[in-house]
Design goal:
Layout (H helix, E strand, L loop, with lengths): L5 E6 L6 H7 L5 E5 L6 H8 L4 E6 L6 H16 L4 E5 L4 H9 L4 E4 L4 H11 L13 H26 L5 H18 L1 H8 L5 H19 L4 H13 L9 H4 L7 H8 L1 H12 L4 H9 L20 H16 L10 H9 L7 H8 L11
Parallel strand pairs: 1-2, 1-3, 3-4, 4-5
Helix pairs in contact: 1-5, 6-7, 6-8, 6-9, 7-8, 7-9, 7-10, 8-9, 9-10, 9-15, 10-14, 13-14, 14-15, 15-16
This protein binds fe (ii) ion (2 copies).
One fe (ii) ion binds next to helix 9.
Amino acid sequence: MAQAQSILLVTSDPEAVQPVRRSLALLQPVQTLCLTDPRDDAIRHMLAHGDGVSVIVSDVVPRGVDIVRGLRGLLDPFRLLKTPILCLVTRTSPRDEVQAWALGASAVLATGSTSGALVAAVRGMLQPGETHPGLQPPELERQLAVAVTDVGVAVADMLSSAKQGGRISTPAIAEASGSMLQGIGTVGISAWMRLVSEVDDQTYRHCMMVAGFVAAFAMSLGFSHGDCDRLTRAALMHDIGKAFIPLDILNKPGPLDATQAALMRSHACLGDDLLRAQGGHGEMTLDVVRHHHEHLDGSGYPDGLSGRGISDPVRIATICDIFAALIERRAYKSPMTDAEAFQIMRGMTGKLDMQLLTMFGRLFARPMPRSA
Ligand SMILES: [Fe+2]
Ligand SMILES: [Fe+2]
C-alpha cells in the first residue's frame, strides 16, 4: 500500500523555519528535522522508509565541514531514490548556491522568498495529485485543490507582509477572492470546506473558512458579483491583525489568561490601524476588520457598537466568523458539529442578527464535512 507522503523540511533552526513550514503545510503534511538534533522517532522512521518523502526542502546554510558532511549524509539516500531536493540559499552568497548544487539540489530558491514562490517551486516538484492527501480528485476537484492552495498562499503572504511591515498586496487578495467565488460557485461550499479543513495552520485555515462561508452566503443572498467580491476580500482579511499576536497565544492549547485575552482582542484594532495607515483598502474591508467582534446588544469589542451601528457586511462576517470558529478544530477544543454550532448561535439572541442566521442555516442543506 502506498505510504502517505510528507515534505521533509531540513533545518538548523526549527524556530526560524516556522514560516516556511506553515507555507509548505498548505501542500502536504510537513516533517521538520533539525540537522543537529536528528532524534525524532517519526523522522527516523521516515528516513528508514525513504518512499514516504515526496520532496525535501533544506534551509540549512551549507557552510562548515560538519554541516556539509551531515547534510550530505542525510541527502545522499534521497538522491539515489530521485527524491526532489529544494535548497533555500542566500542569494548574496554564490558559494552557498554552488554548494547546494554540489549536494544534489534539484532546484534552489532564495531564502526569504514569498510563500507564493516557495509553494509554486515545491508544487512543481510534486507528482500530479500529490497535494491534499486522501483525495483522488477528478479534474474539477484538482482545480479546486490548486485554488485552495493559492488562496492559502495569499493569506500566508498577507499575514507575513503585515508582520514585517510590508505592503499588503491587494491584487493577490483580489485574485484569491476571484478563485474562491469561481470555485465555490462551481463545486459548492462543501467541497471547498473539505479541502480547507486539511490546511494545517490554524490561522490560515480560519481565514479561508470564514471567507468561504462569506462567499457562499453572499452568493446565496443574491448579492451582485462586485458585492460578493468585496465581502469575500474583507473576510479574507478580517483577522489580519492576528499577524501581530504571538503564535504561542494564537495556538495556546488552553484558555487565555486576562492579559493574553486582552492582547488577542487587540487584533481588531491592530488590523484596522495597519490597513488605514497603508491606505487603498475599501470601507467595507476596514469596517469588517475592525468590527467583526461587535454584538448587536453592545457587548462586543473594540467599540461596543450596537444595533444599527453595526452594518450588514459586518453582521454577515460575524455570523460566518463565529460559525467557523465553532466547527474548527483548535489546539484547545474539538470541532463541533453544524447542529451544535447552530444551537449555540441560536442561543445568542440579542447579539446576532437572527434573521441572517436563519438564512445562513439554509446554506447547509447537506451535512458539512468536519475538520479532522
Ligand atoms: Fe477576529
Ligand atoms: Fe476570525
